[in-house]
Amino acid sequence: MSLSSASTLTDALGQYNDNLSWENDPTKAAAALEAIRWLLANRPASTASAGVSINYSNLADEKKLLEAYLAGAGSTRRTSFVRGVPLYE
To answer: What average pLDDT does this structure show over 41-52?
Structure first.
C-alpha cells in the first residue's frame, strides 16, 4: 500500500503494523519507513484515541534504523576470495 495525502491515521498504522518484521526484507522495510514518515509528518499536537498511544520519539529512532538498513540493502558489497591450496599429509 502506498500512503498519500488522502491516507488516514488508520491506514498508516495498518501499514506500519503489517511490516513490523522488516529485518532482512527491503520491501517491508521501505513500507515501514513510509508509514513512519507519514506518522511523523502528520502527527497531531496531541493524540487521544481509544486505546491508541503513539510515542513519536521511538518512531524517530526506528526511522533512523530503517534508513540505515535500506541504505545498506541497496549497496553493492564485494567479497574478497582467497586462493585455496590443498593440504597434503
So the answer is: 68
Read off φ and ψ for residue 49, nearest 5 degrees. -125, 155
The single residue listed with the C-alpha cell 564485494 is: 78
pTM higher than the cut 0.70: no
Q: Which grid cell sits at 21? A: 518484521
Concatenate the DSSP letters of all residues of the chain into one string: ----TT--HHHHHHHHHHTS--TT-HHHHHHHHHHHHHHHHT--SS--BTTB---HHHHHHHHHHHHHHHHHHTS--------------
- Domain locations in the chain as residue ranges: 9-73
